[in-house]
Amino acid sequence: MLEGKGFYIWNINKCEHGDVEEIAGKAAVAHFSHVLIKIADGTDDHNLNLVPPLASELKKQGVEVWGWHFVHGSDPTGEAQKAIQRINALDLDGFVVNAEGAYKNKHQAADTYMRILKNNVQLPIALSSYRYPTVHHEFPWDEFLSQCDYNMPQVYWKENHNPGEQLRRCVREFQNLKYKPPIIPTGAAFTEHGWTATASDVKEFLQMAKSLFLKGANFWEWENCRTRLPREVWQTIRNYEWEPISTSVNTWGRASEGDAENKIVERYIQALNTNSNTQVAELYASDAAHILPKRTIQGKANISNWYLLFFNQIFPNAAFQLKGVSGSGSSRHITWTGQSSKGDITNGNDTIGIRNGKITYHLSHYTITQAAAVHTKYKVTAYSLNLRDKASSNSQVIGTLCKDDVVSLLNKSQDLYWFKIKTPWGLEGWASHKFLVPVQDGEESGQGDDPPWLRIAYQERGVKEYSGDADNPRIVEYHKSTTLNHSYANEDETAWCSSFVNWCMEKSNYEGSDSALARSWLNWGRDGNKIQLLGGNQSHEVNISGQDKSNLLSYRWPGNYEG
Length: 563
What we know:
TIM Barrel, SH3 type barrels, 4 domains, Nuclear Transport Factor 2, Chain: A, elongated
């Protein structure tokens, strides 16, 4: 069973000046369990005469030697024969197939290569390819992964510095495929096109891999890391202690290791780290009860909806760590911690009841400590400023800021052009610094003079309908402020623009129309002379957008509002 830290080598002669003893010595000091060396490219040899002496030195240090083969798919039989030839000539512990774009839409070629390889070698086999299968659906995932013992996706967070988030998505996507060999991801320890992995990046990557209960982690690539990156990147990887999964969690119970009850705890934390409500809910029995300090949730479907709310609004972008397990038989007590963009949990304390490998009851207690406030604030100078998911003008727009919005600075891109910011309603993204100016502590945004219901509406920006059958509990709450029939009020697909306005009015202590019908506001309150283009159910979310006057039926204010 492969477990621990590993590093890829492309060209041996460029690593430590080709000194194989030096390479092996540094691998041993870094406590690498394995090193992955390129041995072939297509039907050609690679590092032809250099692999045997390096493999010998690595094995003297107790480091496993894996060979990797970059394949093209134009001659799958020839490539498989080359792989077999190199494996037979070398003293390897494992073999990695590196298949990428050249193999897209080549399902038969992939099947041929893997079938010949699998029938002729006895080594464990791994696949090294893309990190997100949903983005590369043309790739023959089934043909490769069905014959592999491990999956080593390339989780390269190029142009970003969010390895934990990307690894979590990677694991979540691969868990949805038909074939699911254990994942040992490969992280970025290189520089390319002006982008450079940082020491904090690689540490976050390793920590997330451990939190997801992955057995190991690799990095690409030795020569690039050792000669082109700051020294602290290598040092961080070298000094990171990778304890085996079996000893990294403090267990006091008498139950035997690996039984169904202990496995459910491990799978629960792993599922939490995917931030997927469906994967967490799959661990519960159909009639399970989840007991929280202020509510009890009954049934698997309702528990799934609760986790959807938890991951999206209460504790978003979260990472969890299991701290301890105790108990025996059908009951387990666990302690855990979590970190998210909205704060930390340091006192997670749960009791879990288990029957037939499923959670039947779950008593959970925790408190969220709010994240420390960021004091560096900026005001938007443009009338409309796009908020993007990456520090690039080619990235996806995830929101829009308005003139005089005040945001908190979280980070800056290396060229200082892009600022990572957080909006007052909790949305995080990147915006151009050209339209942001610093504000003094205590300076208020333009929202300070707005009526109370509008300030409440601002805080709801970003609330949107959930895809699929799930319903956003926040939108359901909007509906339930009205007299809408119960069966319709429980669905976020029901038009909710009027419900949103009614909810905002009630939250600001003004009487609304109590109706889910938009025209109910025509005879409500008194005429207003201000236009506020902020609403619910606008393109299926709460946002600010320009609207033609012909689309607006009336402008209304509460009759007793003075402002």
